[in-house]
Specification:
Length: 273
Protein backbone atom coordinates (compact mmCIF):
# COMPACT_ATOMS: atom_id res chain seq x y z
CA UNK A 1 0.00 0.00 0.00
CA UNK A 2 2.74 2.44 0.97
CA UNK A 3 4.68 1.55 -2.18
CA UNK A 4 1.61 2.33 -4.33
CA UNK A 5 1.09 5.67 -2.58
CA UNK A 6 4.76 6.56 -3.02
CA UNK A 7 4.61 5.63 -6.70
CA UNK A 8 1.47 7.75 -7.23
CA UNK A 9 3.07 10.72 -5.50
CA UNK A 10 6.17 10.36 -7.63
CA UNK A 11 4.11 10.08 -10.82
CA UNK A 12 2.02 13.14 -9.99
CA UNK A 13 5.16 15.09 -9.10
CA UNK A 14 6.55 14.39 -12.57
CA UNK A 15 3.24 15.39 -14.17
CA UNK A 16 3.16 18.67 -12.24
CA UNK A 17 6.76 19.45 -13.13
CA UNK A 18 6.02 18.94 -16.81
CA UNK A 19 2.67 20.77 -16.73
CA UNK A 20 3.75 23.80 -14.70
CA UNK A 21 5.55 25.63 -17.57
CA UNK A 22 2.41 25.22 -19.69
CA UNK A 23 0.27 26.52 -16.86
CA UNK A 24 2.61 29.48 -16.33
CA UNK A 25 2.53 30.25 -20.06
CA UNK A 26 -1.27 30.32 -20.04
CA UNK A 27 -1.47 32.43 -16.88
CA UNK A 28 1.13 34.92 -18.14
CA UNK A 29 -0.78 35.40 -21.36
CA UNK A 30 -3.81 36.74 -19.46
CA UNK A 31 -1.92 38.96 -17.00
CA UNK A 32 -1.79 42.74 -17.48
CA UNK A 33 1.62 44.04 -18.46
CA UNK A 34 2.28 45.68 -15.07
CA UNK A 35 1.82 42.36 -13.24
CA UNK A 36 4.45 40.45 -15.21
CA UNK A 37 7.47 41.70 -13.30
CA UNK A 38 5.88 42.22 -9.90
CA UNK A 39 7.93 40.99 -6.95
CA UNK A 40 7.05 38.59 -5.50
CA UNK A 41 5.23 37.17 -8.54
CA UNK A 42 1.64 36.04 -8.19
CA UNK A 43 0.51 32.65 -9.44
CA UNK A 44 -2.88 33.82 -10.68
CA UNK A 45 -3.44 37.30 -12.14
CA UNK A 46 -5.25 39.82 -9.97
CA UNK A 47 -6.86 41.21 -13.12
CA UNK A 48 -7.63 38.94 -16.05
CA UNK A 49 -7.23 40.41 -19.52
CA UNK A 50 -7.28 39.16 -23.12
CA UNK A 51 -5.80 42.32 -24.58
CA UNK A 52 -2.61 40.49 -25.56
CA UNK A 53 -4.56 38.06 -27.73
CA UNK A 54 -6.48 40.90 -29.35
CA UNK A 55 -3.32 42.87 -30.01
CA UNK A 56 -1.59 39.79 -31.42
CA UNK A 57 -4.42 39.15 -33.88
CA UNK A 58 -5.12 42.75 -34.86
CA UNK A 59 -1.73 44.50 -34.78
CA UNK A 60 0.66 41.80 -35.97
CA UNK A 61 1.02 39.32 -38.83
CA UNK A 62 0.34 36.35 -36.56
CA UNK A 63 -2.56 35.05 -38.64
CA UNK A 64 -0.39 35.15 -41.77
CA UNK A 65 2.30 33.08 -40.06
CA UNK A 66 -0.39 30.76 -38.70
CA UNK A 67 -1.81 30.16 -42.19
CA UNK A 68 1.69 29.51 -43.55
CA UNK A 69 2.26 26.87 -40.85
CA UNK A 70 -1.09 25.22 -41.60
CA UNK A 71 -0.28 25.00 -45.33
CA UNK A 72 3.29 23.88 -44.67
CA UNK A 73 2.47 21.19 -42.09
CA UNK A 74 -0.55 19.84 -43.96
CA UNK A 75 1.25 19.65 -47.31
CA UNK A 76 4.32 18.03 -45.77
CA UNK A 77 2.13 15.48 -44.01
CA UNK A 78 0.34 14.47 -47.22
CA UNK A 79 3.59 14.20 -49.18
CA UNK A 80 5.39 12.20 -46.50
CA UNK A 81 2.50 9.81 -45.84
CA UNK A 82 1.91 9.15 -49.55
CA UNK A 83 5.58 8.40 -50.29
CA UNK A 84 6.14 6.46 -47.07
CA UNK A 85 3.07 4.27 -47.64
CA UNK A 86 4.19 3.25 -51.12
CA UNK A 87 7.80 2.86 -49.99
CA UNK A 88 6.84 0.67 -47.05
CA UNK A 89 4.70 -1.49 -49.33
CA UNK A 90 7.66 -1.96 -51.65
CA UNK A 91 10.06 -2.86 -48.85
CA UNK A 92 7.70 -5.42 -47.27
CA UNK A 93 5.83 -7.01 -50.17
CA UNK A 94 8.35 -7.08 -53.04
CA UNK A 95 11.55 -9.13 -53.14
CA UNK A 96 14.54 -7.57 -54.88
CA UNK A 97 18.27 -7.33 -54.35
CA UNK A 98 19.41 -4.73 -51.84
CA UNK A 99 15.98 -4.37 -50.24
CA UNK A 100 17.21 -4.60 -46.64
CA UNK A 101 20.27 -2.46 -47.40
CA UNK A 102 18.00 0.21 -48.83
CA UNK A 103 15.83 0.12 -45.70
CA UNK A 104 18.84 0.59 -43.41
CA UNK A 105 20.21 3.35 -45.66
CA UNK A 106 16.93 5.23 -45.29
CA UNK A 107 17.13 4.84 -41.51
CA UNK A 108 20.73 6.07 -41.55
CA UNK A 109 19.65 9.33 -43.20
CA UNK A 110 17.25 9.88 -40.29
CA UNK A 111 20.13 9.54 -37.82
CA UNK A 112 22.10 12.35 -39.48
CA UNK A 113 21.96 15.69 -37.62
CA UNK A 114 19.68 18.19 -39.31
CA UNK A 115 22.42 20.78 -39.53
CA UNK A 116 24.43 18.49 -41.83
CA UNK A 117 21.76 18.70 -44.53
CA UNK A 118 21.07 22.43 -44.40
CA UNK A 119 23.83 23.65 -46.72
CA UNK A 120 23.28 21.03 -49.48
CA UNK A 121 19.53 21.64 -49.33
CA UNK A 122 19.96 25.40 -49.42
CA UNK A 123 22.25 25.27 -52.47
CA UNK A 124 19.90 22.86 -54.25
CA UNK A 125 16.84 25.00 -53.56
CA UNK A 126 18.62 28.15 -54.78
CA UNK A 127 19.56 26.39 -58.02
CA UNK A 128 15.93 25.33 -58.48
CA UNK A 129 14.69 28.87 -57.80
CA UNK A 130 12.66 27.75 -54.78
CA UNK A 131 14.43 29.67 -52.01
CA UNK A 132 12.29 31.79 -49.68
CA UNK A 133 9.13 29.83 -50.47
CA UNK A 134 6.86 27.48 -48.55
CA UNK A 135 7.67 24.85 -51.19
CA UNK A 136 11.32 24.91 -50.13
CA UNK A 137 10.31 24.12 -46.55
CA UNK A 138 8.02 21.30 -47.68
CA UNK A 139 10.98 19.72 -49.50
CA UNK A 140 13.29 20.27 -46.53
CA UNK A 141 10.83 18.90 -43.97
CA UNK A 142 10.21 15.85 -46.14
CA UNK A 143 13.91 14.98 -46.04
CA UNK A 144 13.94 14.46 -42.26
CA UNK A 145 10.33 13.28 -41.72
CA UNK A 146 10.20 10.70 -44.50
CA UNK A 147 12.85 8.22 -43.21
CA UNK A 148 11.17 7.76 -39.82
CA UNK A 149 7.70 7.66 -41.40
CA UNK A 150 8.89 4.99 -43.83
CA UNK A 151 10.23 2.80 -41.03
CA UNK A 152 7.13 3.33 -38.94
CA UNK A 153 4.82 2.25 -41.77
CA UNK A 154 7.17 -0.59 -42.67
CA UNK A 155 6.59 -2.05 -39.19
CA UNK A 156 2.82 -1.71 -39.57
CA UNK A 157 2.93 -3.20 -43.06
CA UNK A 158 4.92 -6.20 -41.85
CA UNK A 159 2.14 -6.95 -39.37
CA UNK A 160 -0.52 -7.29 -42.10
CA UNK A 161 -0.92 -10.96 -43.16
CA UNK A 162 0.18 -11.46 -46.74
CA UNK A 163 -2.48 -14.17 -47.16
CA UNK A 164 -5.22 -11.51 -47.25
CA UNK A 165 -3.64 -9.82 -50.25
CA UNK A 166 -2.86 -13.14 -51.93
CA UNK A 167 -6.49 -14.21 -51.61
CA UNK A 168 -7.63 -10.97 -53.25
CA UNK A 169 -5.18 -11.49 -56.12
CA UNK A 170 -6.43 -15.05 -56.62
CA UNK A 171 -10.01 -13.73 -56.75
CA UNK A 172 -9.04 -11.50 -59.67
CA UNK A 173 -8.11 -8.23 -58.01
CA UNK A 174 -5.22 -6.24 -59.47
CA UNK A 175 -2.16 -5.41 -57.40
CA UNK A 176 -3.38 -1.81 -57.09
CA UNK A 177 -6.90 -2.95 -56.23
CA UNK A 178 -5.64 -5.29 -53.53
CA UNK A 179 -3.47 -2.51 -52.13
CA UNK A 180 -6.41 -0.09 -52.06
CA UNK A 181 -9.08 -2.46 -50.76
CA UNK A 182 -7.08 -4.78 -48.49
CA UNK A 183 -3.84 -3.09 -47.39
CA UNK A 184 -4.92 0.52 -46.83
CA UNK A 185 -7.85 -0.26 -44.45
CA UNK A 186 -5.54 -2.51 -42.40
CA UNK A 187 -2.82 0.14 -42.47
CA UNK A 188 -5.06 3.02 -41.40
CA UNK A 189 -3.89 3.17 -37.72
CA UNK A 190 -0.29 3.35 -38.91
CA UNK A 191 -1.11 6.03 -41.47
CA UNK A 192 -2.87 8.15 -38.85
CA UNK A 193 -0.03 7.85 -36.32
CA UNK A 194 2.53 8.65 -39.05
CA UNK A 195 0.52 11.65 -40.20
CA UNK A 196 0.25 12.92 -36.62
CA UNK A 197 3.98 12.52 -36.03
CA UNK A 198 4.81 14.32 -39.29
CA UNK A 199 2.36 17.15 -38.61
CA UNK A 200 3.76 17.80 -35.11
CA UNK A 201 7.32 17.65 -36.40
CA UNK A 202 6.56 20.13 -39.21
CA UNK A 203 4.57 22.47 -36.97
CA UNK A 204 7.37 22.78 -34.39
CA UNK A 205 10.42 22.82 -36.71
CA UNK A 206 12.62 25.90 -36.35
CA UNK A 207 16.12 25.40 -37.74
CA UNK A 208 15.28 24.80 -41.41
CA UNK A 209 12.70 27.59 -41.40
CA UNK A 210 15.25 30.00 -39.93
CA UNK A 211 17.93 29.24 -42.54
CA UNK A 212 15.91 28.61 -45.69
CA UNK A 213 13.26 31.34 -45.50
CA UNK A 214 13.97 35.05 -45.05
CA UNK A 215 10.80 36.36 -46.67
CA UNK A 216 8.11 37.50 -44.25
CA UNK A 217 5.41 36.20 -46.62
CA UNK A 218 6.63 32.60 -46.33
CA UNK A 219 7.67 32.43 -42.67
CA UNK A 220 5.91 29.84 -40.48
CA UNK A 221 4.92 30.51 -36.89
CA UNK A 222 8.16 29.35 -35.27
CA UNK A 223 10.41 31.90 -36.99
CA UNK A 224 7.70 34.49 -37.60
CA UNK A 225 6.87 34.89 -33.92
CA UNK A 226 10.56 34.99 -33.00
CA UNK A 227 11.28 37.66 -35.61
CA UNK A 228 8.20 39.66 -34.62
CA UNK A 229 8.39 39.63 -30.82
CA UNK A 230 12.05 39.04 -29.91
CA UNK A 231 14.82 41.53 -30.61
CA UNK A 232 18.25 42.31 -29.22
CA UNK A 233 16.81 45.00 -26.96
CA UNK A 234 13.35 43.84 -26.02
CA UNK A 235 11.13 40.77 -25.65
CA UNK A 236 7.37 41.18 -25.79
CA UNK A 237 6.67 38.64 -23.07
CA UNK A 238 2.91 39.11 -22.95
CA UNK A 239 2.47 38.74 -26.69
CA UNK A 240 4.99 35.91 -26.77
CA UNK A 241 3.03 33.92 -24.20
CA UNK A 242 -0.24 34.60 -26.00
CA UNK A 243 1.34 33.48 -29.28
CA UNK A 244 2.70 30.34 -27.63
CA UNK A 245 -0.74 29.43 -26.32
CA UNK A 246 -2.33 29.90 -29.73
CA UNK A 247 0.46 27.93 -31.42
CA UNK A 248 -0.21 25.05 -29.03
CA UNK A 249 -3.97 24.89 -29.57
CA UNK A 250 -3.94 23.03 -32.94
CA UNK A 251 -1.48 20.45 -31.61
CA UNK A 252 -3.50 19.93 -28.44
CA UNK A 253 -6.70 19.42 -30.45
CA UNK A 254 -5.09 17.02 -32.91
CA UNK A 255 -3.29 15.09 -30.19
CA UNK A 256 -6.41 14.83 -28.02
CA UNK A 257 -8.33 13.07 -30.79
CA UNK A 258 -5.49 10.93 -32.17
CA UNK A 259 -3.24 10.17 -29.18
CA UNK A 260 -4.15 6.45 -29.16
CA UNK A 261 -2.88 6.10 -32.73
CA UNK A 262 0.33 7.94 -31.88
CA UNK A 263 1.01 5.64 -28.92
CA UNK A 264 0.31 2.62 -31.09
CA UNK A 265 2.66 3.99 -33.70
CA UNK A 266 5.55 4.40 -31.28
CA UNK A 267 5.02 0.81 -30.19
CA UNK A 268 5.04 -0.44 -33.76
CA UNK A 269 8.27 1.42 -34.43
CA UNK A 270 10.03 -1.00 -32.11
CA UNK A 271 8.83 -4.12 -33.93
CA UNK A 272 11.28 -5.74 -36.26
CA UNK A 273 9.82 -5.88 -39.76
Amino acid sequence: MLRKIAFNLFAWSIVLMVAFPLFWMLVTSVKPQFELFRRPPTILPETWTFEHYWKLLSDTNFLGYFWNSVILSTTTTFVVVAIATLGAYSLVRFRYRGRESLAFLVLFTYLLPSVVLILPLYLMLVQLGLSNTITSLVIAYTTFALPYALWLLRSFMAGIPEDLESAALVDGASRLGAFWDIILPQLLPGIISTALFTFILSWNEYLYALVLVNSDDARPLTTGVMNMLISSFNIEWSLLMAASVMMSVPLIIVFAFLQSYLTRGFGAGGVKG
